[in-house]
Design a protein that fits this description.
heterodimer; A: about 400 residues; mainly beta; Rossmann fold; Neuraminidase; 2 domains; 5-stranded mixed β-sheet; B: about 190 residues; alpha+beta; 60s Ribosomal Protein L30, Chain: A; 4 helices; 6 strands; globular
């Protein structure tokens, strides 16, 4: 009991000093409390303190929160104070210093400390921002050996618990999750042709859904999983095609040139892709049911490729190339010019449309990193050997 | 300073009040059990060894890859006639005409042969974009060979994007070497 009161005073004292200070000193703190205006790449991170916990859990919490727009300060400078312990199980709480109350207090059991820590960090993000966190999400990506051959992997969003999905020793590329399901589409050269495979991750069952002359690449499952968009060149030019989930009922959607990287709008109505019109690389979109191709202007960002439409429908992230490669984000409705964020390629949105996973190129090799698009905070995820690229976030 | 004198007793008093009222808040009010291994996702990865029905889905009329199945690759025969491209371009330059003519002659001299054109890119492009660009390069050569009288049904195209550079260096001369179409002659398997 004695110990309990001591820690209570330690926690409460700064709160009340602040409370009193806020009452006596006008203005200053009120400005900090509300910071709802999020500007891409320019938002200030939310200051939090983390006390207690063992090193492993503290590192996990810091990683998870950093890539979701938090920064770490001393308790007396923190807007939210996170504290707890991790002996045996994770127990944690969050105190809102300005709101003067405990907004989260929870314990976790089962699985591993790592999973408990991720679950706690998701609860922290939800308690503070009102939005679902990303700490228990999964990614898929490709791991390439110097030979050019590689395998498809899946892992936790931070690169831990990575598992090879394929064991074919051939060129693979472009894994794409079926939304809401433990299933992937990807491109594999296993049958001596770039074909599209469907792979059920629960049963291990695989099916070739596109194996035609020329390329069958860059698959993208529709939001409801009933269809798949892909790039095929069976008609003599790489174009956007759509098929049912099993590869049946093929329809050619475009007749532009060098189309690549289709992605779906979250309402399933549009397919956005990279293309070349009059020798200029552009982004464009086409109705998924067929129709006229519309160019999506990306002023100030030359050679756009690899678009990814955010799950909330608001943004399109893509790669621009002007010598080097940069990650850009623009409003999907074209209401503002793209914002250039960081060096990198092939962005994929988190399920909550706030963090991107992307590939960073260093001397021809790729590493995967996470980018919080509002604060531009970046962290590398845990790497598998070789070159890790073409990330796809499960959502 | 007067304020400070006030603040401390006030703070202590408030702390005591909180100790009485807020104490309960410190006990976790929720216990969340965490399921093992991400809730069963990707638990049971099979070998993924079975690949049934490679040709059946879609069933489009141009799925003619089976015509190339029983062929042996001869990579050396046409290795001298590799053609190269300008940066980010799939346009065949006139300087490559002689090589294309040589490939056409080889195919014409033995009608039992077929051809794989492998399109490749330098590393200065994103991955899937390069796969499409390599495809365009291979398809451009196929079209050129068709104009020289070769039946396009004897030709298949394959893009490797930037996965198969001949020179792994990161400089202009390596890039120029890597932007290419390789021609692979296919012979029927003996006895087939």
């Amino acid at each position: 009991m004695k110990k309990y009161y001591l820690s209570l005073i330690q926690i409460c004292l700064p709160i009340f000093l602040l409370l009193v200070a806020a009452n006596f000193v006008h203005g200053q703190n009120e400005i900090n409390i509300q910071q709802e205006i999020n500007v891409l790449g320019q938002t200030k991170p939310i200051p939090v303190s983390i006390e207690g916990f063992g090193a492993e859990v503290r590192d996990i919490l810091k990683f998870d929160l950093y890539v979701q727009g938090f920064t770490f300060v001393t308790p007396d400078a923190a807007q939210y104070q996170i504290s707890g312990s991790s002996t045996g199980n994770v127990v944690g709480r969050v105190v809102d210093r300005f709101g003067r109350k405990t907004i989260l207090s929870r314990s976790y059991n089962g699985a591993t400390l790592r999973r408990q820590a991720h679950a706690f960090s998701d609860d922290v993000v939800l308690a503070i921002t009102g939005k679902k966190g990303i700490a228990q999400t999964r990614i898929a990506f490709k791991v390439e050996a110097p030979s050019g051959n590689g395998e498809i992997y899946v892992a936790d969003f931070d690169g831990y618990n990575a598992q090879a999905v394929t064991h074919d020793g051939v060129i693979v590329s472009a894994p794409s999750w079926v939304p809401g399901r433990a299933a992937l589409y990807y491109n594999s050269y296993k049958l001596n042709n770039p074909d599209i495979f469907y792979h059920n991750l629960t049963t291990g069952e695989r099916k070739v859904i596109a194996h035609y002359s020329g390329s069958n690449i860059s698959p993208a499952a529709s939001p409801d999983g009933s269809q798949v968009a892909m790039i095929m060149s069976r008609s003599g030019s790489p174009n956007v095609w759509v098929a049912n989930a099993d590869g049946s009922h093929l329809r050619k959607l475009t007749s532009t040139s060098e189309d690549s990287s289709p992605c779906w709008s979250p309402d399933g109505r549009w397919i956005c892709f990279a293309t070349k019109i009059r020798e200029r690389r552009l982004l464009a979109k086409v109705p998924a049911a067929g129709g006229k191709v519309q160019v999506i202007p990306t002023p100030g960002t030359p050679n756009p490729t690899e678009p990814d439409w955010s799950p909330d429908g608001k943004w399109i992230a893509f790669t621009m190339q002007a010598g080097e490669f940069d990650i850009c984000v623009m409003p999907a409705d074209g209401s503002a010019s793209p914002t250039i964020l960081v060096r990198g390629e092939d962005p994929s949105w988190s399920p909550n449309s706030r963090t991107l996973i992307y590939a960073r190129r260093i001397a021809g090799q790729y590493k995967l990193s996470l980018l919080d698009v509002y604060t531009k905070q970046v962290k590398d995820i845990r790497q598998i050997s070789g070159s890790d690229s073409e990330p796809a976030w499960a959502r | 300073m007067k304020i400070l004198k006030l603040v401390y007793p006030m703070t202590l008093a408030l702390a005591v009040v909180l100790a009485a009222t807020g104490c309960r808040n410190h006990r976790p009010y929720g216990v969340t059990p965490i399921p093992h291994e991400g809730g069963g996702l990707v638990n049971n990865l099979g070998p993924g060894g079975t690949l049934p029905g490679a040709n059946e889905p879609g069933g489009g009329p141009q799925a003619s890859l089976s015509g190339f199945d029983n062929m042996t690759q001869d990579r050396a025969a046409l290795a001298a006639y590799t053609i190269h491209f300008a940066f980010d371009s799939s346009v065949i330059r006139h300087s490559e005409d002689a090589n294309l003519q040589s490939v056409a002659s080889a195919l014409q001299s033995d009608p039992s042969t077929k051809l794989t054109i492998e399109g490749n890119c330098d590393e200065r492009g994103t991955e899937e974009y390069n796969r499409a660009l390599g495809d365009s390069r291979a398809l451009a050569a196929r079209e050129a060979l068709a104009k020289l009288g070769i039946d396009p049904a004897r030709i298949r195209t394959m893009s490797y994007g930037k996965d198969k550079p001949v020179n792994p260096a990161h400089n202009e001369s390596a890039w120029a070497q890597n932007r290419r179409d390789d021609f692979v002659l296919l012979h029927p398997k003996t006895g087939a």
